[in-house]
Amino acid sequence: MTASTPTTVTAEVPRGADRPLLTYLDDATGARIDLTAPQLGEWAARSAGLLRDGCGLAPGSRVAVLLTPHWRTAAVLLGAWSVGLAVSYRPQALAGLPVLEPGGDRPYDAVFVTPERLDDWLEDVPDGTHRYLVGTGVEPLADVPVGWLDWSAEVLRHSDAAPNYTEIRPSDPATPDGTTYGEWGGLAREMAELWGLRAGDRLLVDAAEHEQPLKWLLAPLSVGASVVVCANLDRSRVDDRVVAEQVTRVL
After folding, report:
1. Residues with Cβ < 8 Å from 90, sequence gap 6 or more?
2. Can you tell me the distance from the alpha carbon of 133 to that of 183, in angstroms, rounded to the nearest whole number?
3. Which of 23, 40, 116, 226 is deepest in the core (most CB within 10 A)?
4. Measured distance CA(82)–CA(163) in Å, rounded
5. Per-residue model confidence as pLDDT tens digits over 164-213
């Protein structure tokens, strides 16, 4: 994998419990969401409850996540991994090509997809026993097709208290292709080291250019850095964004 190297900038980083761990911005709509570590943990806990208690999934269950970089995507991924599920993350449409991973010919135990991708003729959305639409806007989804559920509504049925987390071994598979939790964790730390990321850094990520969660989620979180994920990034505003968000690294 070829990894881009973040640009270093100088800024005073906010610290403390109120410091956002993950900020999501959309330059096209002006949307903004700031989540502290406890708040992101609460959404991940709700997502874990939806998968484990709502869907009845257990370690070894397979989940397909067809979502773009977003705070809700982070909640889905962290929730799924916290209860030991194997997550297939596919950021781009496959244009009808088969999913090349073990078990790709049978339904996933749960599928998460944005409404736009569900309606995209280029997208090969896999079958799933439990199927959720995950919107990227602020408002609830206006039209949910038969056979699908609105994640934003369903996830609120579950507690935001930390669940009794599944004991996960480093050798357990984190993705259906057999890559383990230990291997993904090692890759995340190696990428953070390659970029020179450290605790306290604040990383600005262009959502359109870096869709792999290893880059925008796992690598920074593995070393205690915070993330600003920007959708529809206006490149002419990057310098102003760096100052306003107290960014220290730009990917």
Report:
1. 64, 65, 66, 99
2. 29
3. 226
4. 9
5. 767 888 999 898 888 999 999 999 999 999 999 999 999 999 999 998 99
According to DSSP H, which parts of the chain are helical?
Answer: 37-49, 71-82, 115-118, 151-154, 181-195, 213, 219-222, 238-245
Euclidean distance between CA atoms 168 and 173, whole angstroms = 9
* Predicted pLDDT of residue 7: 52
12, pLDDT greater than 50: no
Q: Which two tokens stand for residue 119?
A: 């309606």
Which single residue is written with the structure tokens 């995209």?
Answer: 120
Long-range contacts of 168-172 (CB under 8 A, 24+ apart): 168/59, 168/81, 168/84, 172/59, 172/84
Write the CB contacts of 179 (distance below 8 Å, at least 6 apart in sequence).
173
CB 108, CB 131: distance < 8 Å: no
CA 31 remoteness from chain centre: 17
Termini Cα distance of the chain:
15
Q: pLDDT (tens digit, 9 = 90+) per residue, 81-101?
A: 999 999 998 755 555 555 545
The token duo for 166 is 């599944």
- Residue 141 identity: L
Report the alpha-carbon distance of residue 177 to residue 88 in Å, rounded.
8
